[in-house]
Design a protein that fits this description.
mainly alpha; 2 domains; 3-stranded antiparallel β-sheet; 66% helix
Length: 146
């Protein structure tokens, strides 16, 4: 069995060795079993993290498609950054911007997820909701207000 100490996973034998060391005993850490966070750093991704990542990717593709429909039908884009990218580089530039954003979120989770394990669930969930709302507003602009 191993334990999580401030984001690090240590085998039980390390705690047995540190238990008799008075210097190590003065260090105040909260020790959790690995399953307290649902992640034992074995390469397995939690169920909810997978669900939210899938939702985020589906919502991002929906946002891409509905933005394309809105731009083709001359409704424009409300986000000034995206509007500038589409004006300068066209729709392939927007696709590149979207891929870059997804990649940055993945890198953030790769590094920050070690010290904030719940971030693996919350950040993809937030991104899925935001991308989904963007797709819904695009659908409203294209279909309902057409």
């Amino acid at each position: 069995m191993s334990y999580r100490v401030s984001g690090a996973v240590l085998p039980k034998t390390v705690f047995n060795m540190l238990g008799s060391n008075p210097v190590a005993m003065t260090i105040k850490y909260t020790v959790y079993p690995n399953d307290a966070y649902g992640d034992d750093h074995s390469g397995k991704v939690s169920y909810w993290s997978t669900i939210w990542w899938a939702g985020f990717l589906v919502a991002s593709v929906a946002d891409l498609l509905t933005t394309y429909l809105a731009v083709v039908r001359n409704y424009g884009e409300d986000n000034p950054v995206v509007a500038a990218v589409i004006e300068s580089y066209g729709f392939p530039g927007f696709v590149g911007l979207k891929i870059l954003g997804i990649g940055l979120i993945y890198v953030l989770l790769y590094y920050a997820g070690e010290w904030k394990p719940k971030l693996h669930i919350y950040l993809p969930a937030l991104c899925a909701i935001v991308s989904g709302l963007a797709a819904v507003t695009n659908i409203l602009a294209v279909v309902i207000f057409a």
